Amino acid sequence: MLEQWKKVLNKMENEVTAVTYDLWISSLKPIKYANDELLLMAPSVTAKNQVCQPAIFDKLTRIVREEFDKYAYIRVTETKEYEENIRQQDEIEQKDSGRECPFNKKYTFENFVVGKSNQVVFAAMENVAEHPSQKFNPLFIYGGVGLGKTHLLHAVGNYLWKNRPELNVLYVTCENFTNDYVDYLRNSKDKLKSEFRDKYRTADVLMIDDIQFISNRTGIQEEFFHTFNDLYQNNKQIILASDRPPKEMSALEDRLRSRFSMGLIQDIQEPDYETKVAIIKKKCSQEGYFVDDDVVEFIAQKTGTNIRDIEGILSKVVFYAGLLGKTHATMDDAHEALKDYGEPEKTSLNADKIMSTVCDFFKISREDIVGKKKNKEVVEPRQLCIYLINDMLSMPLTAIGDMFGGRDHTTIMHARDKISKQLKTNPHTKTLVNDIKSRLLKY
Ligand code: ADP
Ligand code: MG
Question: Would you say the CB of residue 147 lies under 6 angstroms from ligand 1?
């Protein structure tokens, strides 16, 4: 920029009188050139006003366009004004940082790769972000694990956070919602009850993730039904994400199923090869990874459709290259880093699969693992299974309780916490968990 500016000065010297040049032009300082705008700093208001007179300004613009870009334009500022601008900007940023953004900054619309598999969902979510409560209400999206549902919910959150700060946008997982409700039930104090309703019924946009986990026990669906109606009647936007369509949610009450169908129900499908390649490339540029093109293609071919797994494998390859002191990952690194992996597995992870893997591992029956027996041979596998289902799927305790013969959520919590504790102190438990996980995660 400085070189170009020197040329501008030289040319200007021939265009204006020596006095004008010495007094007003030579003291201009280029500060920044961005988006075709050249920002020039004048040492005083007088100097700025002089330069902004058409006779000088037009010449300056013409020469700047010759040297910078034919579409360039100039803006002249002076010290005080410039400082005031910076101060104002700082203030705005500070205000923003005062409200802490609850959404994952990486999960934006801009960072989401759109392909055939997800373009309709993407368009619907974007529409809802731009015009909440107008077209698709409720918006129900569903699709398998790792296909971008949570990402899109956060993208709506981030968009509204930035563009509609006046709106109360609430994102919770079904588990958060359930826990809040269970807390309130347990205490059953009026205050808590009103706090629960304050939190959920004052939302302008309510997003609930993993709604498939909504249990039919403890009146949670009843409460959700009322929350839903209340928000809907007040013309508030509701967005729900699930791993399956409402008709396949067996625990769902019919009246909720029919509520969900009042708006748009849209699925997100598994990405095709091209989309996977585009996602991997995007991830590389975001994270600053240098990865050869053939490595990108190799990863896209070798992996299944769960994008979270794809990201994990990509970072594994990059990590491996980094260990060797390389800044660039090549095919050799990819082969070496992934040599233990087999062919991609088609089915994705679910609670059923975790349970049958644990049963296989310990050679016990499904009846025993969900049953009432208390001998050590079944108690430990049962606890591990509960831990894994909660850990790997974030499935809420009440839903896990349902799977395990209607056990209470406190029993489930106890089992989970016991394994969490053992993981920290007992290497044997750690080995068990790792072994079972590696069976489950083989892709
Ligand atoms: P889900 O909630 O459907 O299980 P997530 O939203 O958690 O899936 O997505 C898993 C990971 O994959 C996230 O890191 C997300 O950013 C990434 N991801 C999924 N789909 C896309 C996409 N189309 N473009 C970019 N990243 C994606
Ligand atoms: Mg999710």
Answer: yes
